[in-house]
Amino acid sequence: MELGISTFTCLKFAVYVDNDYHLDSLGLVQLPLKKPKPKQIASNIRVVIDLSFDSLMTDMEITSVSSQLTRCYAANRSTSRPVNLFFTSYGQRIQNRFDTKIQSHINWKDVIFDTKSYLERFDKNDLVYLTADATDVIDELNENKVYIIGGIVDKNRHKNLCYDKAKEENIATAQLPIENCIKLTTRKVLAINHVFEILVRWLECKDWQKAFLEVIPQRKFNDEGKKKRRIRKNAGTIDLKDDIPDTVQDGLAKEYEPSEQM
What we know:
- This is tRNA (guanine(9)-N1)-methyltransferase.
- By secondary structure, the protein is an alpha/beta fold.
- The chain has helices spanning 5-12, 20-25, 59-78, 92-101, 118-121, 161-168, 178-181, 192-205, 208-215, 223-234; strands at 46-50, 84-88, 111-113, 127-130, 146-150, 172-174.
- β1 (46-50), α3 (59-78) and β2 form a beta-alpha-beta unit.
- The longest helix is centred in the first third of the chain and has 20 residues, at 59-78.
C-alpha cells in the first residue's frame, strides 16, 4: 500500500492506542506528547559551576563537561524552582567548545557565563563548595549561601581536587546527605549535572531521598546494574549517551556526548 504525504503525517501524529501496532508495523514511531512547562517560581538560591580546571582535562573531558553544562541549563529551565546559575572561570577551551558546537548558548536565559572566579563575584563567607570529600553535611539549601559544584571530569586522576582548592581559598565545604538517605554500591562522586539536578529537585520537593532516587542513575544502587553495564560495555553494545537527553526543548543546544564523571 502506498502512503501519501497526508497519510504519513496522520499516522505519525496519531494518538489512538489502537494505532500503535500499525505505526510499529510501518516502521513509524508515535511522537510523545510534549510535557507542558511547569509554572516557575524563581528561588534565591545561587549555584556556581567552577570551570577553573580547564587545563587539567583532555579534549574528550572538555567535551563531556560541556555536555553536562548543557544538561544543567536544561534542568534549570524545566524545573518549577529555578536557581540563579553561574558558570565561573569560563576558560578558553570550554569557550571554544561552546562557540563551535553549542552556538545557541548565546540565547540562553537566566545563566551567567563569567571568565572571572567566584571569589571575584561573591563574598567568600557566603561560599560553600560541594564535594564528596567534605566532612560537613548539608541538611537544606540556604538562600544566603552560594553553592559551588566542581566543573571537572578527570577519571579520578586528581584526588581531593575540589576539597583542597576550597581549603586553600579558605572557603567552607560540604557534601550532600547521600549516606543518610540511600546506599550506593559505587563511589559518591557524581556527574556535574547530577549534583545540579539533585539541588533543583530538592527545591521542588524538599526531600533529599526522593531527589537522589529520581536523579542518580540506577546502576549506582545495585551490583546487578553495574554487572549488566560492564557486560554490555565489554560486548560493545553499551550506549554511553544514556544520560544525555535526546532533545532539549525551548531552543536549547543539542549536546549528545556522554557524561563520564560517574
